[in-house]
Amino acid sequence: MFSSAQCGKRWSRYLKASLGVFVATLLLAGGRSARAQSPDEGTVKEFTPEEAVDFALKNYPAVRASIEQANAARASVGLARTDYLPRADVLWQGNRASRNNVFGLLLPQAVIPAVSGPVLSTTSTQGVWGSAAGLLFSWELIDFGTRRARVDSARAAANQANDQLALTRLDVAVATINSFLTLVAAEQTVHAAQADLERREVLAKSVHVLVDNQLRAGADASRGDAELARARANVARALQQQEISRAALANILGIADARVEVREARFAEMPTKNIPSTSKLSTHPLASAQDARVQELRSQVRLLDRSYYPKLNLQSAVYGRGTGANTDGTFQGGTNGLGIDRSNWAVGLTVTFPLFDIFSIRERKGIELANARAEAARYDQTIQDLTGQLRKAQASLDGARKVAEATPVELQAARATETQERARYQAGLATLVDVSDAQSLLVQAEIDDALAKLAVWQNLASLAAAQGDLGPFLQFLHQKPQGGP
């Protein structure tokens, strides 16, 4: 996280939403770039912010999963449309069985096979061949809107999946920009740590020369060595945080086993304009996804409304049967019965009506209506939360600009102070503690100035994210700076 001791709690609160977690001990040092290389690292990939976002959206597993979920939802719409198609079932059966039959009723069941033919006075366990073949064509002519409601429900689910995909893409893009800026901030901290280390090395050598010539007390040499050791430790901590940030960016890019480098683009300069603002938070992917969920549940209610209607089916059949048994009780030998002996055809209308489904439909409708009202309330809460986030993002951006306007003055004064204190120490007018304090103030000012500019860029990205679209922010990065070629 960016932090600045001199800006107090307000600066800390502002930076808490900015570039991730930065330990306060990293606010130590500035200077030239130093990047640690690991012998086990593989391919090195370099990215601009735009390239990083595009790469993450193509490779991050969560995005790919959301894409496939959206594809499945769209396929469900096509599946629902197939209900409009007629149904045709083909059957062939061959069997060998006895032919004993009885008078009497048998309730519908799926265990005992049916036997056709007359009831004979004698029974026999002898088996004969039998066969059957047929085609049944069935088409629902009138459904009173049931199939259309089913298609609309599937379409609402597809819309919800598409909105969820857009939300996932936004989340990944925002996480990528935050990780990118966090790595840039870590590199700026390494720069500062290296510069501070160089200054303290020069100071320690100067102090040792003065102590060796008995112009300063030996305690100054010890103090200089201690400050130098602390500067080296600070560089190590800064490098550690840099590599952690690099690994986090590689992970969000979907290439956790590769080493990534960043091109800082325009982050070293102060952005002079804001991105266009919008008050239509209903188009935010989070709001759209929640609204799609409401519409999906309402479509379920409409489907239930169309469920308690009769179903009218046009049916036709062509079928035939063969048997090796005669009506007089005698049996045909050989393979008689395996072929079709008699055939028939039929055409008719069938009306079915689930009379007692009204009770379950009524309860299911009550459930879906309650769920729809709950999701509608969550939609209102989502709009409220997005409005608050947008206002917070704008306030953070305004505060970041004011801080970034103040840090150059802080840096200039800190540099002058450090130069003057070194000169006064050389002249014997200041102590080594004064010089160390001045150098600590300088490294703090260098970090404040570098991170303040990054904070403005990060808050611009946060403002774009609060509006639901990082596109304006990425386009803003493409614009030429004022006074540029």
Could you describe the 3D structure shown?
Helix content is 57%, strand content 12%. The chain has a domain at 5-33 and 41-80 and 149-198 and 230-300 and 381-478: Outer membrane efflux proteins (OEP). It has helices spanning 8-16, 49-59, 61-81, 146-212, 218-252, 285-305, 357-426, 432-467, 471-478; strands spanning 44-47, 87-97, 128-142, 259-262, 311-323, 342-352. The protein is of the alpha+beta class and 485 residues long. The strands form two sheets. It has a four-stranded antiparallel beta sheet with strand order 2-3-5-6, with no helix packed on it. Strands 1-4 form a two-stranded parallel ribbon.
Could you say which overall geometry the principal axes of the C-alpha atoms support? Answer: elongated
CATH class designation of the domain at 5-33 and 41-80 and 149-198 and 230-300 and 381-478: Mainly Alpha
Give the termini distance in whole angstroms.
34 Å
The average pLDDT score comes to 83
C-alpha-based Rg, rounded: 39 Å
Helical percentage: 55-70%
Total number of beta strands: 6
The spatial strand order of the largest sheet comes to 2-3-5-6
Instruction: Give the CATH architecture of the domain at 5-33 and 41-80 and 149-198 and 230-300 and 381-478.
Output: Up-down Bundle
Please state roughly what percent of the residues sit in beta strands, choosing from under 5%, 5-15%, 15-25%, 25-35%, 35-45% or over 45%.
5-15%
Q: How is the main sheet built?
A: 4 strands, antiparallel
What is the CATH topology descriptor of the domain at 5-33 and 41-80 and 149-198 and 230-300 and 381-478?
Outer membrane efflux proteins (OEP)
CATH superfamily of the domain at 5-33 and 41-80 and 149-198 and 230-300 and 381-478: Outer membrane efflux proteins (OEP)
